[in-house]
Specification:
The protein starts with a helix and ends in a 22-residue tail after the last strand. The relative contact order is 0.17. Helix content is 26%, strand content 4%. A two-stranded antiparallel ribbon has the order 1-2. The chain has one domain. By secondary structure, the protein is mainly alpha-helical. The chain has three helices and two strands. Bound molecules: iron/sulfur cluster. Iron/sulfur cluster binds next to loops.
């Protein structure tokens, strides 16, 4: 492998994409908050009140827990919000 292709292979973006592909995002998110080893802070996961995709809100995310919490994001979670960790629910 030449130096250009190895540089391309190991960019931060590629590593994150690879982590997402293997389902490691929740692990990375959990490590983002040193004071809380279990959940990531909202700002780190781009938690937003305005979901870009109306179909991908917390209410439809498999990580959401009624009435207002998330398995991987700290704090109160509103059903109409969203973040970059949104995960599709398992097909029925
Ligand atoms: S989109 Fe999912 S992972 Fe993100 S805060 Fe809402 S419930 Fe949690």
């Amino acid at each position: 492998m030449n130096s250009v292709s190895s540089r391309t292979l190991f960019t931060r973006r590629n590593l994150l994409a690879a982590a997402v592909a293997v389902g490691a995002t929740p692990v990375l998110a959990a490590r983002a908050e040193p004071s809380n080893p279990v959940k990531a802070p909202k700002d780190r996961v781009h938690y937003t009140e305005m979901a870009v995709d109306a179909q991908k809100t917390c209410k439809t995310c498999k990580l959401f827990r009624d009435p207002a919490s998330c398995l991987f994001v700290a704090g109160e979670i509103a059903p109409h919000c969203s973040c970059m960790l949104w995960a599709a629910p398992k097909a029925a």
